[in-house]
């Protein structure tokens, strides 16, 4: 699932032309992109900003000098809104980092994104699990390389509060609800805090709840069918996931600690949630592994997260006790040009060498097979990577990331906000289903 603070809705103009994807493909333009000219500079755009952007630039600094190629990265919180317009106008960057494979696939069908060069595809195939490669495959053509990953569904909590009440980590949904009520009764406060507010991406945290609960409730087969709309949002299985989420998110006694109840979820940001958890105003929140960045920002970089620390996390339990399937989200690199320098940089970013370089800096995990759980200096990220590497785990990419942009970055987002705001679930789901592209 994506970071709730980074997701942006594609502009209306782009969404309008995405409906013409099939006609674009029929014209033979798919994968055409821009030719580009090698000039020693490769421009990359993406949604990574602040500390994430600085660490990204630091990760390739040595390689730049050795290979005499300057990489110019430009990060923007409006990236996903901008990139569609740049592609339409014929002035995209050489490479772009996407958080939503569905958008890459939309742009590939329209001929804006180039297919992976043979040398890059070879690096991708040897570096990453096949499952990750398939997320940006259209037909039989691969259009992007995995870059970084996030593990969704972590419930961050206060070990101190749990220890004082002799509470154990829940192993199923019923135990989680029992634990929540016990915390409320014992402390006199709402245990949970959640925040959906994030400008045009408001509602992304809500999507994460639904993604995880569909997978935990009905398993990967139903989840995959839902992600491709073979099962609609109005299906009973999806309605059940909303009902499960509502047991917590729509319970005025359990949310929204320190912010004002259920309605305040729509006006609370992830940064505010981090501050509330760090200060003890709330005791639990469900976030992705990237929430660690928000905690460190909240505490000016000194927040320690670990089993014996002020804050730790457990994975949202399954509906019934047993193995827990989980969702992930990630970043993917796609090319708009194919000059020699661009291909060389794209190949490097698809290598185990780059993945190791970036993970060692902290604040990130990678789906690369060669990156081990001990690579990162962060305890939570090592735990995330261990789960990601488990051969026994059932893993799925965030369904909202796989859906067409008009849904995953549009009506699903707004639907979550409307649902928390009091709109009937059936009406919300019907609206989302009605927005799904017909072709």
Keywords:
12% strand, six-stranded mixed sheet, 19 helices, three-stranded antiparallel sheet, 46% helix, 439 residues, alpha/beta, D-Maltodextrin-Binding Protein, domain 2, disordered N terminus
What report would you give on this structure?
The chain is α/β, with parallel strands linked by helices and 439 residues long. It has 2 domains: 12-151 and 328-393, Periplasmic binding protein-like II (D-Maltodextrin-Binding Protein, domain 2), CATH 3.40.190.10; 154-326 and 405-435, D-Maltodextrin-Binding Protein, domain 2. Helices cover 46% and strands 12% of the residues. It has 19 helices and 11 strands. The strands form 3 sheets. Strands 1, 2, 3, 6, 10 and 11 form a 6-stranded mixed beta sheet that branches. It has a 3-stranded antiparallel beta sheet with strand order 8-7-9. The chain has a two-stranded antiparallel sheet with strand order 4-5. α10 (204-227) packs antiparallel against α11 (236-249) and α12 crosses α13 (291-298). The radius of gyration is 21 Å and the shape is globular. The protein starts with 11 loop residues before the first helix and ends with a helix. Mean pLDDT is 88; it is low at 1-31.
